[in-house]
Specification:
heterodimer; A: 344 residues; alpha+beta; Rossmann fold; 9 helices; B: mainly alpha; MetI-like fold; 2 domains; 13 helices
Chain lengths: 344, 279
């Protein structure tokens, strides 16, 4: 069964169309991540699914039922917000129980579900506290707990980790991944952080300007991006793009090459000057500038002694490159197809 | 204050200025209070002297309690003030929520229309209001005053509260919607507690003019049984003779309830004024 189906969903605010013809399926138990730059419509799409915004046209099906006309509380969804959105005047326990009380669940059922969620998220010691007495990470766990107790058909996460600091973000990310495994629930997760997308998702949906650019598993998208936007958006540091003319290709096309596939060598094809070096210990990111002003990032493993302003030359294997046309579309000619075969 | 940043002169100056201001602000109240306990002659001979064995007298308070139904006036004032505040806050907050939360055609225009009342003094419409009250038979009832004061307070209340309600997190309201709360529950249980400081601000700004008003009680409800405190005190002020003892005593007592209400609201009020300045 499919947990969520979107059929030709459009959304406009006045004359501005923010979602264009979105078609998507989320299988039962699947973890789907919407990713895209800010303003791409990913949060709006989540709101349309949740029912907080109405779709201008199109059909939304959750767990087999068309829910276009169903209010958010009856769609069988639960949502976790970026700002936690806990009820400030209620205790942790009451925060988690409120939705169930509204559904008129029996008291002992509510108790049991809250206790179970608190155990799962190790919130047992905090049940009687107010949200203001909790740290950011604990608040977000309460917000997740509030979603878990409702046993929804579909979990919706709206950038849940954006307000947490780096260490906590990683912990909470792992916690969400574990939750997904234990509950075996369908989840839709919105983020602009590609690490979250790559690590959590079964399926990534890349959005730009309200359109779906590509749908696929993290590695599919990484290894076989459909266009220049997807190629540049996934991967950190992001993919380098250079005019193909520099290495003897057609003049109006672009070559994409990931930073880890470039090497510094004395006999490289491209002469460059080092403009900046980032030593991360485990790897070293070297930013170089080609003679024509193109910036490239080179990711070297281990520690390297490179100084800014040093003259270097860079090289890469043509098999590692991606080719893009003038409008950003992927070019798959004979040689490129051979490249794909090598990679997969 | 941090020790390193403490400058004795600045500290002294700041306290000096505040003390001077406090004295100036409290001085009239202080003069009213001490003179209400003096006999008539000493009020005029030495207005600033404290009451002593010779000049002490409670004749003013006796007059107030004997003449006219002071407790009834007091009660009327209290009923009118509290009821008006209740309606101003309730309807003001509801209108503000609608303006801040829902997108509908003419939202901005409606907001401007409601705010227009801030700029137009309600007293301009006194004659029309009186005619309306006469034809509805509300003259000489407390309802006449409550309705007028509610109308008078609403524009500012809507204006201030809608600003504050826009700051209440959308996520919180949406979380409520997903949990199945009705719009009314979201309004009363989630939003109102969060704008409490703003409500207190509106309450204080409205309370004092209503309590002190002489105009509308005189015109709309001058009957003996609906007189408010301010109006009731006027019986002691005559064209040729004024019973100062009684006036001062009545004023002293009129200060009390406003002070009590103010103390209740002031903790919230200060949070209201400073909220947003520090997160």
């Amino acid at each position: 069964m499919t947990a969520l189906t979107l059929k030709n969903v459009n959304k406009s605010f006045g004359k501005v169309q923010v979602l264009h013809d979105i078609n998507l399926e989320v299988e039962d138990g699947e973890f789907v991540v919407f990713i895209g730059p800010s303003g791409c419509g990913k949060s709006t799409l989540l709101r349309v699914i949740s029912g907080l915004e109405d779709a201008t046209s199109g059909e939304i099906t959750i767990g087999g039922d068309v829910v276009n006309m169903v209010p958010p509380a009856k769609r069988g969804i639960a949502m976790v917000f970026q700002s936690y959105a806990l009820y400030p005047h209620l205790s942790v326990k009451a925060n988690m129980a409120l939705g169930l009380k509204q559904e008129k669940q029996p008291k002992d059922e509510i108790e049991a579900r809250v206790a179970e969620a608190a155990r799962m998220l190790s919130l047992g010691d905090y049940l009687d506290r107010r949200p203001s007495e909790l740290s950011g990470g604990q608040r977000q766990r309460v917000a997740i707990g509030r979603a878990v107790v409702r046993k929804p058909k579909l979990f919706l996460f709206d950038e849940p980790l954006s307000n947490l600091d780096a260490a906590l973000r990683m912990n909470t990310r792992i916690e969400i991944a574990r939750l997904h495994r234990t509950l075996d629930a369908s989840m839709v997760y919105v983020t602009h952080d590609q690490t979250e997308a790559m690590t959590l998702a079964d399926k990534i949906v890349v959005l730009r300007d309200g359109r779906v650019e590509q749908v696929g598993s993290p590695m599919e998208l990484y290894n076989n991006p459909a266009n220049q936007f997807v190629a540049g958006f996934l991967g950190a540091p992001s993919m380098n793009f250079l005019p193909a003319g520099l290495v003897g290709g057609a003049s109006d096309t672009t070559i994409g090459i990931r930073p880890e596939h470039i090497r510094l060598s004395d006999t490289g094809r491209l002469k460059a000057a080092v403009s900046h070096v980032e030593n991360l210990g485990g790897d070293t990111n070297v930013l170089v500038e080609l003679a024509d002003g193109t910036q490239m990032t080179v990711r070297l493993f281990g520690q390297h002694n490179v100084a800014p302003d040093e003259a270097v030359s860079v090289d890469f294997d043509d098999a590692d490159t991606f080719h893009f046309g003038a409008s950003g579309e992927r070019l798959r000619d004979a040689t490129v197809l051979a490249t794909d075969a090598l990679q997969s | 204050m941090n020790k390193a940043r403490r400058n004795p002169f600045n500290l002294f100056a700041a306290h000096g200025i505040l003390i001077v201001y406090t004295v100036i602000a409290l001085f009239p109240v202080f003069v009213i209070l001490i003179n209400s306990f003096k006999e008539r002659r000493s009020i005029f001979r030495e207005p600033l002297a404290l009451p002593d064995g010779e000049s002490f007298s409670t004749v003013g308070y006796e007059t107030v309690f004997n003449q006219g139904d002071f407790f009834l006036y007091f009660q009327n004032s209290l009923i009118v003030t509290v009821a008006s505040l209740f309606f101003v806050l309730l309807f003001g907050a509801m209108a503000a929520f609608a303006l801040a939360e829902y997108k509908f055609k003419g939202n901005t225009l409606m907001g401007l229309y409601l705010a227009l009342g801030i700029m137009i003094p309600i007293r301009i419409g006194t004659v029309a209001i009186l005619e309306m009250m006469v034809s509805t038979g509300l003259v000489n009832t407390l309802w006449a005053l409550i309705l007028v004061y509610t109308a008078q307070g609403l524009p500012l209340a809507v204006f201030i509260l809608s600003e504050f309600m826009r700051q209440v997190s959308d996520d919180l309201k949406n979380a409520g919607r997903i949990d199945g709360l009705s719009e009314y529950t979201i309004f009363f249980r989630l939003v109102l507690p969060l704008v409490r400081p703003a409500m207190a601000t509106v309450a204080v700004f409205n309370m004092i003019p209503i309590w002190n008003d002489l105009w509308f009680p005189l015109i709309l409800a001058p009957a003996e049984e609906t007189k408010t405190l301010t109006l009731g005190s006027q019986v002691f002020i005559g064209q040729f003779v004024t019973d100062w003892n009684a006036v001062l005593s009545a004023l002293s007592m009129a200060i009390l309830p406003v002070m009590v209400l103010y103390v209740i609201f002031s903790r919230q009020l200060i949070r209201g004024i400073t909220s947003g300045a520090v997160k």
